[in-house]
Fold:
Amino acid sequence: MTLHKSLAAAVALAVLIPGAALAHHGWSSYDAEKTLTVSGPLTDVAWRNPHGEAKISHAGKTWAVVLAPVARMEARGLTQAMISNGKPVKLVGYPRKDGVLEMRIERITVDGKTVELR
Structure:
C-alpha cells in the first residue's frame, strides 16, 4: 500500500509541476494592446530569478512590476545598482488583463539609458 501511495504522489507531482511552470511564465495574462508608460521611483526592488520585481506608484496606486530574469537584464546592460530602491525610472509595459495592479515591463529607461527587457 505504501508503494502505491508513493507512486500516486510521484505521478501527481509529474503532472502538476509542468502546469505550474507554464502558469508562471505565461504572458497571455497581460494585455499587449494596452501599453502603459509609467515614470517614478522604484520601491521594493528584488534582483532575483525567475525574474526581477519591484513596485512603482502610478495614478495613485501601487503597481507590481515584473522585470526580466537577472541574466538577461545584466546581458543587456542593466545592473542591480541602476535600479535600486528610490531610483527614478521610466517603464514601458503591459498591464494584467484581470485588473490586478501588475505590469510586465518591456523596456526601462534609467539615467538616460533605455534597456529592452524582452
Summary: The longest helix spans residues 2-25. Residues 23 and 53 are 17 Å apart (CA to CA).
